[in-house]
Design brief:
Elements: E1 26-30, H1 56-68, E2 73-77, H2 87-97, E3 101-106, H3 111-120, E4 125-129, H4 135-142, H5 147-160, E5 163-171, H6 179-190, E6 196-204, H7 215-224, H8 228-236, E7 241-243, E8 256-261, E9 266-271, E10 285-288, E11 293-295, E12 304-305, H9 311-332, H10 347-350
Parallel strand pairs: 1-2, 1-10, 2-3, 3-4, 4-5, 5-6, 6-9
Antiparallel strand pairs: 7-8, 8-9, 10-11, 11-12
Helix pairs in contact: 1-2, 1-9, 3-5
C-alpha cells in the first residue's frame, strides 16, 4: 500500500508489533465527557451541560481487563481528562496495573501543575491541543485567556520528557496563515536544551461533534474547513517537504501523512479525514467512551458495555472485541470499505450528547 506522501507502507499498525501482536493495540480512554473550554468549533452555542464520570474503580478495572489481554499502552482523552480531580490517580492506576506507555491529549490548562507527579506515575508522552499562538485568537476560539498556561504545559513536557511531545492544531481557514509561525515556534523549542522533541500535527477541521448538525455549527464548519492541498501548500511555502516513513513516528497514527519541513528540522503530521472521505486507517484501538462503553471500530462495531461488569467479564468482552476487529469485521466489511466516522457525532467524547445517528453524506456539498 502507498500512503498520501508516496511512501510504501504497511496498513494499520502492523509495523509496530514485531513478535508481539498485541503491541499494535492500545486503549483510547475517554475519562470524562466534560471540558473546561468552550471552543467555538466544538461548542458554538457556548458549551455543554456537565455529565457524570465513571468511577476510579471502574477505570482501574477496565485497565486491568485490557492488560489481561496483553495491552500495554493507554491514551487518555476526554472531554478534557485533566479536569478529573483524580486524573493523577488514574495515571498511577495504569502504572500499577502494568501499562508501559501512557499518553494524554490535553488542552494544557492544568497539566503543568501536576506534570512531575504524572511523570513519576508513568506518563510517557503528552499531546497538547493548541490551535493558535495568537493571544486574541486563542481567546476567541476557547473563551479562555490563558495561552501562557497552555504554553507552559507544552514546553514543560518537551523539557522534562524524553521522546516526542506533540502540538495538535485544528487547522481552519482562520488559523491557516499561522502555519509558518507554528513551524518556527516548534523549531525554536527544539533548539533548546530539552530532554525531548516537539512535533507539529495539523488536523483538518472536519465534522466530529453534534454542534456541526445545527445551522450555526454547520455554517461555521463549512466556512472554516480547508482542503488538504491548502495545508500542504502552506507548508511548502516554508520549504520543500520530505516524506517520513511511519515506522519512524513515535505514537504513529495510520491516517496521518508525515513530513520534514525544509531545513527547519521540524516534523509535521497532516490529517485530512474530510478530504480523504474519512477513509479507514486500519487502527487497533479499544475506544472506551466516557459512559463506560467500548468500541473497536468507528464504522462497524457493536458497543460492549463494560460498566458494572466484573474484571473477568470485562476481560472476556475485550477479548471478544479484539477477535471481532481482527476476524469477523474483516469478513463483514474489509477496511477498504470502512470509514473512520461514527454516525452519532461526538459520542466517543461527549457520551449521551452524541445525538441521533446520521448519514455521512450530509457533510458533503452536493
Amino acid at each position: 500500500m502507498v500512503d498520501k506522501s508516496g511512501i510504501e507502507r504497511e496498513f494499520g499498525y502492523s509495523h509496530m508489533f514485531e513478535g508481539d501482536e498485541m503491541n499494535k493495540w492500545h486503549v483510547r480512554f475517554g475519562l470524562t465527557p466534560n471540558c473546561n473550554f468552550s471552543c467555538t468549533y466544538c461548542a458554538p452555542e457556548g458549551g455543554f451541560p456537565r455529565q457524570s464520570e465513571i468511577s476510579l474503580e471502574e477505570v482501574t478495572q477496565i485497565l486491568q481487563a485490557s492488560n489481561n489481554n496483553g495491552i500495554k499502552r493507554v491514551h487518555w482523552t476526554g472531554g478534557e481528562p485533566t479536569v478529573r480531580r483524580d486524573f493523577v490517580d488514574c495515571v498511577k492506576a495504569a502504572q500499577d496495573v502494568g501499562f508501559e506507555k501512557q499518553v494524554v491529549t490535553t488542552n494544557g490548562y492544568n497539566l503543568y501543575k501536576n506534570l512531575d507527579e504524572c511523570i513519576e506515575n508513568g506518563l510517557t508522552r503528552v499531546i497538547v491541543s493548541l490551535d493558535t499562538l495568537d493571544k486574541e485568537r486563542f481567546y476567541h476560539l476557547t473563551k479562555k485567556d490563558i495561552l501562557p498556561r497552555v504554553l507552559s504545559s507544552l514546553e514543560d513536557s518537551v523539557e522534562k520528557m524524553s521522546g516526542i511531545t506533540k502540538m495538535s492544531c485544528c487547522t481552519m481557514r482562520s488559523t491557516l496563515p499561522e502555519i509558518e509561525n507554528m513551524v518556527r515556534y516548534v523549531q525554536d523549542i527544539n533548539s533548546r536544551d530539552n530532554k525531548g522533541e516537539l512535533v507539529l500535527k495539523l488536523n483538518q477541521f472536519f465534522a466530529s461533534n453534534p454542534a456541526q448538525l445545527q445551522d450555526h455549527g454547520r455554517n461555521y464548519w463549512e466556512n472554516e474547513m480547508v482542503q488538504r492541498d491548502e495545508i500542504i501548500s502552506a507548508l511548502e511555502r516554508i520549504g520543500p517537504l520530505t516524506p517520513m516513513h511511519r515506522k519512524n513516528i513515535e505514537g504513529d497514527n495510520p491516517s496521518y501523512s508525515y513530513f520534514t519541513v525544509g531545513d527547519t528540522g521540524v516534523n509535521v503530521g497532516v490529517l485530512s479525514m474530510h478530504t480523504d472521505r474519512y477513509a479507514c486507517g486500519g487502527c487497533h484501538k479499544l475506544r472506551i467512551m466516557p459512559e463506560g462503553k467500548m468500541s473497536v471500530c468507528m464504522d462497524t462495531s457493536p458497543d460492549y458495555v463494560l460498566l458494572g461488569k466484573s474484571v473477568e467479564e470485562k476481560t472476556q468482552m475485550i477479548k471478544d472485541g479484539v477477535f471481532f476487529r481482527e476476524n469477523t469485521l474483516e469478513e463483514m466489511k474489509p477496511a477498504s470499505q470502512r470509514k473512520h466516522f461514527h454516525s452519532q457525532l461526538g459520542s466517543q467524547r461527549f457520551g449521551k450528547l452524541g445525538g441521533e445517528p446520521i448519514n455521512i453524506d450530509v457533510f458533503y456539498k452536493k
